[in-house]
Specification:
The protein has no helices and 5 strands. The protein is globular. It starts with a strand and ends in a 12-residue tail after the last strand.
Length: 93
């Protein structure tokens, strides 16, 4: 499971036809403790996430599966909005 926080939205006047009508978000990867990890990146939104929300994302070929039967040219996709995160006390990341 990959977690990220939505930190922005991209507006593009010209984009691939397969992305028409889809929202592109800027995501900051985070750990379960909500600390920032890694570099922000762009992802196509499949669930209607908004600014500041914590989301679950997938990368690679699987990112386009959330849009089936449509073909979406993406390698990162938001597939869930996180309500809560619960960590086991004795568990390591």
């Amino acid at each position: 499971m990959n977690l990220a926080r939505v930190v922005g939205r991209v507006v593009a006047t010209h984009k691939d036809a397969g992305l028409q009508g889809l929202k592109i978000l800027l995501l900051q990867p985070v750990g379960p403790d909500r600390s920032e990890r890694g570099t922000p990146f762009l992802a196509v939104d499949a669930v209607g996430a908004g600014a500041g929300e914590m989301v679950v994302y997938v990368g690679g070929r699987e990112a386009s599966y959330a849009f089936l039967p449509e073909t979406v040219p993406t390698d990162a996709g938001v597939v869930g909005i996180v309500d809560e995160v619960h960590l086991d006390e004795g568990r390591r990341e």
